[in-house]
Amino acid sequence: MSEVDVIVLGAGAAGLMCALTAAERGRRVLVLEKSNKVGKKILMSGGGRCNFTNYDVTAENYICSNPHFAKAALQRYSSWDFIHLVESHNIAFEERRHGQLFCLNSAKDILTMLLDECHQVGVEIQTDSDVSRLDARAGGQGFALEVNQLGQTQTFHCDSLVVATGALSIPTLGGSDMGYEIARQFGLSLVDRRAGLVPLMFSDAMKLLCEQLSGLALEVDISCNGYAFTENLLFTHRGISGPAVLQISNYWHPGDAITVDLLPNLDATDWLLSAKSAQSKSYLKTLLGQSLAKSLVAALGKLFWLQWEDKVMADIPDSELRRIAQQLHAWVLKPSASEGYRTAEVTLGGVCTDEVSSKTMEARQQSGLYFIGEVLDVSGHLGGFNFQWAWSSGYSAGLVV
Ligand SMILES: Cc1cc2nc3c(=O)[nH]c(=O)nc-3n(C[C@H](O)[C@H](O)[C@H](O)COP(=O)(O)OP(=O)(O)OC[C@H]3O[C@@H](n4cnc5c(N)ncnc54)[C@H](O)[C@@H]3O)c2cc1C
User: How far, in Å, is the centroid of ligand 1 from the Cα of 11?
Assistant: First the structure.
């Protein structure tokens, strides 16, 4: 039997940040990781460059049943704190659109930094370790864990147990429901979970259209249920993806319609009506081809202006041009489903934040038990917000465990 002060379950972003923060305070910390490698999602993130935070992080960038929950942790450990840590390790990074910060070289730089920090303060990390039994010890004396490591059973005791097991997205990168099971075991409630930051699919004629346009990307305004983003939309052979779609997927539920403005930077009615006099001999499709890809114009033409396909602008009534303009500004799509946890970047929902302290991440009903990172009902927009939540919540718990 081994005795430590703190056990962190999960060597991902939140778990490593919590571990190094607690060990810096002199706590003896053991991180137990189920898979054979640590930080798999960090390595895969941001297309291999890890979008590790954002210059402009506020609680509004997060989806949570309690919109105020994330504030305290984001204040306690802000994006600037993480940027300073990255700078202190001489990691080169760059700012991309919307204040997103990415490594210039590799996401591995971020994982190496976290592991170096853990090493310096004596954090012990054990991989291939699966918890087979967990009990709270009598009289609030911490926790007893039975752990299976490659067929060997080990027993550990700890004062504080931190659940940083992440969520359901991408099972091959460690996605697991262990955190929810521990929450249930100790009587915490869960907010319904579903895939977030995920591509959307179609089962109707749109599926064929997407297949035909697969690989085409364009900037759009996309909106659903009162939320809107201006980003790139990408057609794929299954449906639609790209940053615009991933962002709006967080607000989409099966059955909902999504509205896409294909020409967010111009007034299509003005444009088409003035073109009717200025370029009266041009074909509609030629004109539209000045602002949209020809393949998209051809596909949309079949749907919305078949009878005007071979007409010059002068022959198309103003009322029709207005209708076509409206169609381009508000293309209504009804996805049949999301691609689900297989490709989702995050899981929406999770451990209910009403049952967890926003300052320390400690469960209100079970002293010494903490939940951090994505296992909680806190999910960020695309843009480095999910890692920032992992750093902020991990740090907040690391200060008190
Ligand atoms: C492909 C992809 C790209 C992404 N890119 C970005 C990005 O660029 N920027 C951004 O902000 N966010 C990004 N995200 C989201 C981000 O990776 C997560 O929000 C973040 O990793 C959550 O941190 P976490 O520590 O809570 O969970 P994780 O990082 O998932 O870590 C959880 C760890 O717990 C381990 N584990 C699971 N079950 C157990 C168990 N029973 N016992 C012990 N260990 C267990 C897992 O193996 C894993 O190592 C991306 C996600 C994906 C899938």
Answer: 9
